[in-house]
Amino acid sequence: MAENSHIQWCDHTHNPWIGCQKVSAGCDNCFAETMMDKRYHRVEWGQRKTETTQPSVGTRILTSEANRRKPVVWNKHHTEFQAKHGHRQRVFCASLSDVFDNQAPEGARADLFNLIGGTPNLDWLLLTKRPENIAGMMPGVWLSEMPSNIWIGTTCEDQAAYDRRWPILQQIPARVRFISYEPALSGLTLTHHDAKPSWLIAGGESGQGHRYDNPIWYYRLMDECEKWRVPFFMKQLAGRKPIPDDLLIRQFPSGIL
User: Fold this and answer.
1) pLDDT tens-place string over residues 134-187
2) What pLDDT score does 63 carry?
3) For strand 199-203 and strand 232-236, is the pairing parallel, antiparallel, or unpaired?
4) Which of 4, 33, 101, 208 is deepest in the core (most CB within 10 A)?
5) Is the pLDDT assigned to residue 9 strictly greater than 90?
6) Domain residue spans of the chain
7) For strand 12-13 and strand 150-155, is the pairing parallel, antiparallel, or unpaired?
8) How many CA atoms lie within 13 A of 218 on its CB side?
């Protein structure tokens, strides 16, 4: 069973639906909007059109049923994958939407959670810019006993986003609670909060018109992560500039295969 993702920190990406709305500065150059709205015109980014949200152009669409069933196949072949790669399959959900968007297609999130519950051999990486919605949208039983194959992450593009989102995320009882410092828009420190994330991914924007990032931000954060024993994963520099060898650290949460 081969990987189907070019994202370095996961093996597969899975999108049960497509479409989202910008919520912070980290969304300004959204690659998903550029690809699915501007280039392919499959959806329109923004608040979804309803009877009470006028005017509004945002849309959300389900992906095909065949696509939504792919994780079942991955789950079935978990033994051969782990024998080949030495770790459980990591599934990033969702790269073209947000699992905790309050305008997801009706029933789609419940179907996704049923899928996650039915694929215990996959580690599901749920990354959101809306951690405040997690507790109200997850099955209640998961908030007291979260399935061990769920990793919950939140995007923190700068210190303000981290200081706002991380305290919310740390209340969610997931086995792994991680931070995506991507796109990095200014320096970030973990020292303001006693609790630390289980994992930190860092990187700049790669597309046309990418915003500036300073390698010093990453070096300082890498040193902090080493101090606090937080696994650090350097994904990319803005514009896909070469990553210096001493910054090319790609760790995963310890004790997890």
Assistant:
1) 999 999 999 999 999 999 999 999 999 999 999 999 999 999 999 999 999 999
2) 98
3) parallel
4) 101
5) yes
6) 12-17+62-240
7) unpaired
8) 28
The pLDDT of residue 1 is above 80 = no
Residue with tokens 């086995």: 175
Burial 203-223 (b: 16+ CB within 10 A, else e): bbbbeeebbebeeebbeebbe
3-state helix, strand, coil in the chain (%, to 5): 30, 20, 50
Q: How far, in Å, CA of 159 to CA of 206, rounded?
A: 21
Please give the single-letter amino acid code of residue 250. R
CB 192 within 8 A of CB 224: no
- Do 225 and 232 form a contact (C-beta atoms < 8 A)? yes
- CA 105 from chain centre, in angstroms, equals 19
- Topology, domain 12-17+62-240: pyruvate-formate lyase- activating enzyme (3.80.30)
pLDDT for residue 53: 61
Stretch (H or E) spanning 116: helix 108-117
Burial class (CB in 10 A: 0-12, 13-18, 19+), 178: buried
